[in-house]
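Supplementary Note 3. Input sequence used for the single-chain structure prediction.
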Amino acid sequence: MSAGDPDAIRVLHVDDEPNAADLAATVLEREREDLEVSTATSASEGLDRLAESTAATGVAIDCIVSDYDMPGMDGLEFLEAVREEHPNVPFVLFTGRGSEEIASEAIGAGVTEYLPKGTDSSQYELLAHRITNAVETRRAERRSAEQARVSTVVREITQSVVRAATREGIEQAVCDRFVDTEPYRFAWIGEPDDETSEIVPQAHAGAGEGYLDEITVTTDDAATGKGPGGRTARTREVEVTADIRTDSAFEPWREAAERRGYRSSAAVPIVHEGTLYAVLMVYADRPGAFDATERTMLAELGETIGHAIHAVETRGRLREQYRELFEQAPVMYAITGNEGDEPIVEDCNERFCETLGYSREAVVGRPLAEFYTDESAADLLDGGYERALAAEFVSEEREFVARDGSVVETLLRAVPRVNEAGAVVGTLTLFVDITERKRAEEVLEQAQAMETAMDGMALLDADGKYVYANDAHAAIYGYDDPGAFVGESWRVCYADEEVARFEAHVLDALEADGAWRGEATGKRRDGSSFPQDVSLTALEDGGTVCVVRDITGRKTRERELQRRNDRLRTIVENVPLVLFAFNAEGTFTLSEGRGLEQLDLEPGEVVGESVFDVYAGTSLVEDARRAIDGEAIHTTVEIDERFFETWLQPVADDGNGGTQTIGVAVDVTERRERERERERYRTVIETVDDAVYVLDNEGRFEFVNEAFSALTGYDASAVLGESVELIEDEATSRRFEVLVEEMVSTGTTETTVEYEIETASGEWIPCEDHLGLRLDDGAFQGITGVLRDTTERERRERTLEALYQRTREMMHAESPADVCETTTETADAVLDHSLTGIWLHDDEGPALRPVACSERVDEVFDDLPTYTPDSPGLSWDVFESGTGRVYDDLAAEPTINPETPARSEIVLPLGRHGVMNISSTTENTFEQSDVALARLLATTVEAALDRAERETVLRDRQRRLEQQNERLDEFADTVSHDLRNPLSVADGRLALLREDVDSEHVEPIDQALDRMDTLIEDALTLAKQGLLVSDPEPVALGTVTEAALSTVGNPPADVALADDLPTVRADRERLQTLLENLLRNAVDHGGSDTTVTVGVLDDEGFYVADDGPGIPVAERSDAFEYGFSTDEDGTGIGLAIVKNIAEAHGWAISVHEAASGGARFEIRTEPSGEPHWPSPRRSARSPH
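The predicted structure, written as discrete structure tokens, is reproduced below.
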């Protein structure tokens, strides 16, 4: 790729080793032809090169590649310096002294890519790939930003063009918007002149003073037509000059352009549907400003501008056509202006002048009111004109006085007239001559007197078309304006079926009789139908007077009355009631209703008989006498073991001059049974301990038991009839509404929810509510609920949660003493046991020594004792037996110190660690829940003590190893940078040598370099393994073995895993490395047919055995030493790594002979060493 190619990727490689930098540059340019690599041997030189490149060529470096470890300024400091001036240039850290710490720091500092150096030439292929990706990503981001900029320009220009009202305004707005945005300096629009072949400037903007006076642009083949403007005029395409300084076609205008800072230009055709309106010329302040994307957008913009110019010119033509139509309109038309709140005629058409008999000159400029009658002028000035200006749709009648004195009746339509700014400046007014229609109204007034009771009136001519309709007629049919009917046929008011009926029957009757009256079905404007009374009267001239009344209300009342009668009949025939009546003598005059079936009577069967005979022996006899005497009765009557709720109402007149009694009886036998059952249920509910309530379907209390009153503090009398919101907040009420809707829709009848209720004292109590729906044939009738106070349960849950949180603290305690201190604090703060102490076992004693106690222990007890086998007590007995004890009355225990203030106690073992004592100064203090929580705490403490012991041992060992790890890290850095960099250069040069010459020495050199690389790699691996591990975690040994097997390049033929492989606490990644090296060792020494077995040791550990040649006894002591190998090609690193990882975990590793004769590596995971027991101490809050 040639130098200066815009598609080339310019790379600056900074490395303090010149050989490495030169090699990288050579290989990178061979890898990709589009890479141009320059080098620098220090960060300061790199900064100078970066500045020089930009200043000299105007083209910045595309990507920087830098080493990390350099004198004076390292790679990250170099990155920070670069970012100050060039925040977006891609930066690749390519270093041989890499580490996770450096990688993390580099990413945090904003490095684009981090790539460790390798030793073979493939590293440069990867580096080239990373460079290309980074640069292409950056270029894509720049292109995206450029597209956004251009889109913004196009959008703003489009908005300005849409608002412009003239071609001149459009062209000037386009130029103004362009120069408001970088990198555009100047823009102008010119129109091609066919006669002179010149592009004549019409509008311009920007830094171009005098430029258009100095230049000439033509559309012909002359030199002035070969630039972008002339080419665009001929091709109708966007033409670009990428660099004004070098483009020969721009020669006629170059000097003038350069003086004004123009560096590139574009010419845009302004076209619409093949017509070239103009050419837009835009100039930018940098070369190459108009890329392909921008050219496409400019082409679309040119079409948009062309469309806008076409539109404004079209509007101009339409205005001329409108003027012609205005003049020839068959109605009177006037345009008014507003002067002092009075309309002045600014223009009018010929029909206006002809109708009034004036010339246009005599009308224009005069107030409109001067042409009105006095009454119409008053209407105009008294609000009519204001309504028109306010954009109300004005439709009113006005009377003009013509020049000859005659009155011209008109119907006016007026709308506001606005200027280009949108301000109201007058009205557009149309007048329709209705003089003839007014005469028709006079005739209609006579017809109206004939039917004064009808609402709507209209006059039809001989053809059945409306001449007049009043407001009521229009309203009946859904019209606001009666004038809408004039000229229309009466058929618009009826559906096709009704029109056919009128034509077949009504019109003939009207012609024969001169009048017709009847009912019909009318059709409103919206298509709906309605019943009507219609009265038609024929006139002598063939016309018809039509009077219409909407009878919808009357029909509705008739239907409602019929529905009521039907409902009453349905009730009497279907509801189990008895409807009856008897006169003053007690004789039945009516006996109806389905309820008679319960009495084995038929409807009407007892009519004519005496109520005193038919129902003799029942309470109805006495009730009937009282009703005959004029008393209204409501009672329940028992007849034939059935119960009827009965109403008796005396009526003063029975129609025959006497009195009668009307009665209604409803069979309520089943309801009484339900009431009895409800009463029995109520008795049961009142005896239960839980709060029970019943709500109706509107959420009001129908029933609560005594337990409910006890829970809430409300008496039943204060609750019944009240809304459930009495005890619930608004959010809970809304929640219940949604819940009930879901239950009804899903068919769920019961559920349990938890929420808080508010008592009469204002206290909020957490409750559990087991509620059920009350349904009747699937319809929701209410809720039955059982409330239970969950305060104690939630307290227990909070206690368990707090205990869990304290448990997490214990499991992270650093020492047994810290565990004990946290325990006593937990017993006091969480379990409310303020007299708690921990005794730990001392093997040297042996003895149980106090380690921690709660704060109150010091106030209650003297010095805490030490328990030994020689002075046994309750605590020693529990420790030896391993069984916890609860003592409700210590005074009854023979071995207790009688002077102790403790009266009851819980003593719990902590495994081999010691005991925990919880005491109280009163007898029978501890309930079953207290004991259960204490046992749970003791179990947790035992586990925490186990962990603290292990952590103590590991921390001691870790401190011993940290110093050695630091030395190993220092060694790794030295090997990585000082050895691998020269090796990398040698390997790269060898690759280039292989391409240039064919020598028998190349291959041995290559093999030697590979051997050196392997040795360095293994040494680095061994050093980086270190002697410490990260936080171990439970790891399934079988799972990690399978993962290790998948990463071994040449795995054993078979690997047998024991079924009972344990879970071990380890650093998963380090354990996998250990297993990988053992599997690889088996194959290296036993071949690919080797079988490996992974099994479990009897004493806390596992083994890895193979069936290979094994390791001789004499060599086993050296097997794990660095450099030991029985294979001449081996490095002796693998087993050294295995030993390092095992010891970093605190494990012991040894090698033995397997049953098959191969090697068996045994790893024991049980930590060694004894825990350190601190002296007894007290916490800020202590027990006993």
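The longest helix spans residues 928-996. The chain has 32 helices and 42 strands.
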